[in-house]
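Suppose you are handed a protein chain with no further information: no name, no annotation, nothing but its sequence. What can you learn? This example shows the usual starting point.
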Amino acid sequence: MTALERYAHQRDKFLFYAANALRLLVPGALARRSLPRLLARLEHYDAEELRARVGYCARLSQGSRLGEDAVSIGSFRDVRRWTYFFDLRATLVHFDPRLRFHYVFGDVTRVPEHPAFVKSRPIGPGNENSVLLKLNRIRHFRFVEDRRPFLAKRPLLVWRGNARHEPRRAVLRRFHAHPRCDVGHTGRLALEPAWHKPPLSIREQLEYKYVLNVEGNDVATSLKWAMASQSLCLMVRPKYETWFLEGQLEPGRHYVELAEDYSDLEARLDHYEAHPEEAQAIIANANRHVAQFRDPERERLIALLVAARYFERTGQAPAG
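A reasonable first move is to predict its three-dimensional structure. Written in structure tokens, the prediction is:
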């Protein structure tokens, strides 16, 4: 990360904390009174698209049951993870403070016993109790404006990150010295010396045609900015998803799918070097996927609808 990027990130964090600290001073009654006005903005958007997105994030069935340890909106205050708390509160403060809910903060890779708001969940059937909201957005939802065209970039694959997890170590083990790959471990964990490389900023990584995305604790954080760029995303089919809807990404359309053991990585690079028009088509589809998350008003409306669906499906509020 360059000095300028560090400054911008610290500035954004300061503004995020300052704005949310001020919101704590606003009486909840004011936020609740503003809900009808906010929902009136729904008429400016495609109702079918919003309904599909809400239904995907909140798959709860009617009559889903809460546990005895559910907390009320009025008593909710979890200072252990401020970024999660602020993001969740920004949505829930618009609802009746007596409504109850569960939540699980952090990198969630298991489905909770009771319906809960989460940042991440496993992809696939059986995840109905995991209700997605846009949590810890200051870290995860960082997009870029990349004006360098695909054909003007270096014909190499790049990855930087902390290799605490085996999938990332597998990449380093196999490709740390590969002439067409610039991959490296940048964390403090003691690993093979040859795996360590200096960090690269997002801008520096976007000088490369190909960006490798490897899941860590849950999702690959880099996927958001990579799919917003003019570089091509390569990854193993994701196992976890967030508000970014990784489970709706289609291999060959939004990204290039790799084998679990990365045995086909070199062949994939060969193919897209020989067929750049296919790479550019995938990049265009990836950019379109990202575009749906760039409208702050639309994002807020969807979050409110997800929360409303949670309270309705858990029998606490009438259907809207």
